[in-house]
Amino acid sequence: MASAASPTIRARRLRRELRRLRDLRGLTVDDVARSVGWHRAKVIRIEQGHSGIAADGLRKLLDLYDASSEERDALTSLARQARQKGWWSVYGDVLPDDYVGFEAEAESISTFQSLHIPGLLQTEEYARAIIHAGRTTASKDEVDRVIAARQARKILLTRDAPPKLWIILDEAAVRRVVGGAKIMSVQLGRIIEACQLPAVEVQVLPFAAGAHASMGGAFTILDYAEPALDPAIVYVDNDTNTLLLEEEQQVSRYKLVFDHLRAKALDPDQSADFLVRISAELQD
């Protein structure tokens, strides 16, 4: 569970390389579909990550693209790794998207949260309160599985080389009393403790800062150790939808937004003091 290797990342590398080889050969999606006897939609699904590729299909594409022996070996290995299961696969019923797979191998995670504490720093009691509020018809077993999945995610913060975690919290996220004063006070204490970790930075964006660059809501930027192989991605999510952004222009825009938020937020030391004050208010 603590391993950083992610089949989700390997699958992304594979589809990016297949697209690169197609472009290098000057072939269109329709050219590929006609040559290998597929519907063009299948080629698109493979290149966009909506469908996996079987070993026989991969061989057909590599033959068509006249791949070198080194490229064949590398891409065949990637495909084999992409078919493996990450630890999160056992929670597929409560972790419906690929986010955890992309998160697992990130070198840095930069997130802005406007309404709640991010999952990696949530206490179990806070998480239960959030889940009960959002899943009013969920059974106890379902809630327990969501909690177990969130607890498992936290392993990446204690591994030998944890990702750099930079969190910006809107004041609303730390002021909203989730689960009652006691649960919220403990939750704020968890964030204050995390501020002491060398790989974690927390900033609070106070109400007094006024309008800011992400009034539209929360997002997370994932950066990787080898950006040439694994370019950064952005996740924009809400309760009903998750959007993965990979285009360089889109990612650059969100990185600029994050820089603006960092500039407007309290610095990490001021933020820790701010959280201490709010926690003390809850205990009065």
Automatic annotation (TrEMBL):
Signal peptide extent: none
Alphabetical list of Gene3D superfamilies matching this protein: lambda repressor-like DNA-binding domains (1.10.260.40)
Domain of life: Bacteria
SMART domains the record matches: HTH_XRE
Annotated HTH cro/C1-type domain residues: 18-72
One Gene Ontology molecular-function label: DNA binding
InterPro entries: Cro/C1-type_HTH, DUF5753, Lambda_DNA-bd_dom_sf
Pfam families: DUF5753, HTH_31
Protein name: Helix-turn-helix domain-containing protein
